[in-house]
Amino acid sequence: METPFRNQSLKIKRTVRLTQILAKYGFQDLRGKYSSSAASDELSSETSELASPYKRIRLAIEELGPTFVKFGQTLSSREDLLPKELIVELKKLQDRVPTQELDIRTYLEDELGIDVNDHFTEVRDTPIASASIAQVYEASLRNGDQVILKVKRPHIKETIDSDLLILKDIVHFLSNYFDSIRKINLEYILHAFKKTLMEEVSFINETKNIQQFAQNFRGSEHIKCMKVYEDYSNDNLLCISRISGVKINDVEKIKSFGLSVNTIVDRGLDAFLTQILYHGFFHADPHPGNILVNSQGQITFLDLGAVGTMLPSDKLLLEDFVSSFIAKDVDNIIYIIKKMAVHIEIENEKNLKREISALLEMANANSLASIDTKVFFSKFSNILNENNIIMPDHIYLLVRGIVLMEGIGRELLPDMNIVEKLKPYVDDMIKKRLSMEHIQSQLMRKLQESYHLLDQAPHNLRVIAQKLEQGDLSIVVQSQELKNIQKQYKKNQSTSRLLAIGCVFFIGGCLLSGGHHFLIFGLPIISWLAFFVGLAFMAYAKVRNLKID
After folding, report:
1. CB within 10 Å: which end of the chain, N or C, has fewer?
2. What percent of the chain is helix, strand and coil (3-state, nearest 5)?
């Protein structure tokens, strides 16, 4: 059972370990980031040759373990937020750790309550892959099926829980004292990351995702889906069908199968876009290692621990956004962004309109064929950040997935025209939206909304009238400038109170200085205590008032 005391105990243990690792890589204090000469004196011999603080950050993250590695990988896709040099290092983060000694047969018997020999003809003792959350073994069932056993590392959940507590404290502190951190909404990024990580740690969740994915692609000739053996699976153990194949970016192997690289690119993009545009349920991390191609040209998506999901209303908004983008309707793009956003504080809408117009100019018809989608999405994300706009989780996952899939496509086909590949899907989407069936459904939806609004109008007007008669009606004016003034006023009040208390203790120390008992340097100890308490309150007031832009 989770308790606050247990959580704090875990956090303290991990904090000690974190401090040791940071010290090892020269980060005893923040100066290590800015002064390579100061840091070099404190580095161990193992790390003394690493002049780049960003490289040391990456190595420290890898040693800190799964939570920090995965958070670093999440931030590696946010080129709009972090320095280029740090992004380069974060992209090198590897989710690989040494194999952990484990008696897999005993593990199976303990988790499943079975005699392994009654159900398996073979269980390989050596894992074929080892990551931070799980290890993977090969096995064969009595019915002849070849399977993969994904085994969760012992105590990994406790480690992740304590790491998340530490990350929450760090992000909260940075967001409170640094405007630049607050503006990039790091707290929201951490919240979204925590949600995704918790889904990935849960094998029950992954089981549901695999089954949903297979249901969505049932009957597909070009997609081969994994199968879950539920009798041999639980939250700590996942038994799935073993699928042979090569990584989707292994051009030589694909050609050796007698397959066309162009065909594989088309099938890969088709599979991913189908997940987004039709299923609303898509792979959250489609990098080459998670996509296999077999000798028949079928594609398999591996590692469905984390997926992106969209409601029908989310898909409609996405379609509206694409349609407005094609039409270069800036006003409607901003309107849709407002409807999609989970948080928005636009300070200057005219400036936002100019920035989006400039982005559309960048993507004009003459340059679309050669546009770098990563650069384009990075610029768009930067516009959102500068205007304090936070989009829902699925949008960031979607953008990351598209960039990864386009990267795979360009790796296989360097001259690939991404616009030509996407054109059929956009045309199909436009045709669907212009179809009489879609127009009728939209009209019915609008009529239902209007009817509901009119039906509720008398009741709402009556409630307003009653509150007006009773004097309970109030009007709230939202103003960002007013919020800032109120915030500054509260902070000044708090600072003044602390300074007043500090002064009282300091003056008290002065008044008591005439005593003659327990003298230290000619002053009584009570005066020294009063001085120290007073100075402590004054120092705390200074820290509370500190605001670094």
Report:
1. N
2. 65, 10, 30
Q: What is the DSSP string of 118-164?
A: HHEEEE-SS-SEE-SSEEEEEEEETTS-EEEEEEEPTTHHHHHHHHH
Q: What is the pLDDT of residues 127-160, one digit of tens each?
A: 998 887 889 999 999 999 999 999 998 888 888 8
Residue 38 has pLDDT above 80, yes or no: no
Handedness of CA 319, 323, 326, 329 (dihedral sign): negative
Per-residue pLDDT at 110? 93
Q: How many Cβ atoms are within 10 Å of 79's Cβ, its own excluded?
A: 22
Q: Which range, 66-75, 258-267, 378-387, has the best average confidence (pLDDT)?
A: 258-267
From the list 277, 376, 379, 374, the residue with the least C-alpha distance to 323 is: 277
Q: What percent of the chain has pLDDT over 90?
A: 28
CA gap 107, 237 in Å, rounded:
9
Q: Region 350-362: what's the mean pLDDT?
A: 88
Q: In the numeric block, which tokens belong to residue 275?
A: 């997940």
**pTM score:** 0.71
Say which residues have a Cβ less than 8 Å from residue 248's Cβ, sequence separation at least 6.
Answer: 254, 264, 268, 288, 291, 292, 293, 299, 408, 412
Mean pLDDT of 364-392: 75
Give residue-wise pLDDT tens across range 291-309. Answer: 999 999 999 999 998 899 9
Residues 6+ apart with CB under 8 A from 487: none
Quickly tell me which residue has 């103003």 as its tokens. Answer: 479
Residue whose tokens read 């951490």: 190
Q: Which two tokens stand for residue 103?
A: 């008696």
* 399-452 per-position pLDDT tens digit: 888 888 888 888 888 877 777 777 788 788 778 777 788 777 777 877 777 777
Alpha-carbon distance of 344 to 188, in angstroms, equals: 13
Quick check: 222 and 299 in contact, CB under 8 A? yes
Q: Between 494 and 25, whose confidence is greater? A: 25
In angstroms, the Cα distances linking 310 to 199, 283, 307, 315 are 16, 12, 10, 6
The alpha carbon of 52 is separated from its chain's Cα centroid by a whole number of angstroms, namely 26
Supply the pLDDT for residue 259: 94
Q: What span, in angstroms and rounded, lies between the C-alpha atoms of 364 and 359? A: 9
Nearest one of 373, 377, 380 to 357, comparing CA atoms: 380
Q: CA–CA distance from 61 to each of 47, 66, 75, 365, 471 (Å)?
A: 14, 9, 12, 43, 58
Amino acid identity of 36?
A: S
E strand or H helix that includes residue 352: helix 349-362
Contacts of 280 (CB under 8 A, 6+ apart): 309, 310, 311, 312, 314, 315
- Token digits of residue 391: 């989009």
Residue 282 DSSP class: E
421 contacts 269 by C-beta, under 8 angstroms: yes
Which of 272, 269, 267, 300 has the alpha carbon at shortest distance from 284? 272
